[in-house]
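Treating backbone geometry as a discrete language has practical consequences that deserve illustration. Part of our work consisted of pairing the sequence of a single chain with a tokenised description of its backbone. We regard such an encoding as a compact summary of how the chain folds. The amino acid sequence and the backbone structure tokens for this protein are reproduced below.
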Amino acid sequence: MILSMVQFIPQDGGEALTEETPEGRREVVEAERFVILRQPKYRKNINLAALPKSWTVARLIPQKVWGGIEAAMRQQYEIKEASRGGVGTDQIQVEELFAAMRGLSQKYVRGEVTRENLQDLAEQTQALLEREGVLSAKDQFLQDLKEALTLAFQEDSRGRFNPLAARMRLYRAMRNLTKREVETWLTRRKSNKVFNLLYVEREDERSSLADVREAVVEVGNHPVLSDTIFRSRPESIFDEDITEIRRVFRGIGQTLQSVRVAPYLLPAKLADIMLRSNQFRKKWEKQRLRKILEVGGVEGEMERPSVEDLIMQRNAFEAAKRLRNIYNLLDSALTGNLVFTL
């Protein structure tokens, strides 16, 4: 997680002092003295339970969704559905609570709430809260809402019935409920856009792998790789043939580089290292490839000859075998991953 918050200054005008923790980090002394101000400040690996109560979290950005893009799509779809409306969703709960509270406030306006029927209305309110799951809710917002509605139908500490105070509590609760409804709408709008973005990316990456899989079949049908005469007589392979095949490999490599997310990133990079020679890559590219391959424990493939290496060595037999391995790898990536569908 990255915690995004604005910079802070001391409320009493004093200087901001820092101290070194046992772990060697610098932290602000008496953080509760500070108020939030100015440009966003980003902190990694924050313990949310240990934040000073005076701090306000502006934004939490999830950096990893285990399971890759398919899991991320499922996550955003569930968020979108939960805020879309319908039985069992946040939206319908907000709508029903708001309608009930508006009806109760109207009873006060019309003078229909008296000391005599106060207990009946309180019981109806409790039944509403129980039906909507508010009584057992852990959400602080819903707990505050429960308190406001409960107090709206109780006498004050002196045993007096105060309709005006009760109406004010209801209005405050309705205002907060309206804010929650707006937040729900914004959440639904954002999750829908994120889902669509992930969907397009997923389809693009699967299409790229499918194109490469088809290209591998086509290059495998090249006479140099398919005709047995070149396996027994490597001197028969002309330089022009090698140049032509390597040109095709460069095009395939560019397509593989467009794959960016799990679970398709690792097989794409592995296919690239198996296909194209490592000796023509820049140092930074090799380092990046190694880090990705280490995730799958297949970094050793960087030390093995690629199809391009074998072609330049005129070893058509081994080149064809390795090319088939690449096909099987890509086919497994496309058929073995559980694709999220609506």
The longest strand covers residues 34-44. The CA atoms of residues 97 and 103 lie 10 Å apart. Residues 1-16, 34-40 have pLDDT under 50 and may be disordered. The first helix runs from residue 68 to 82.
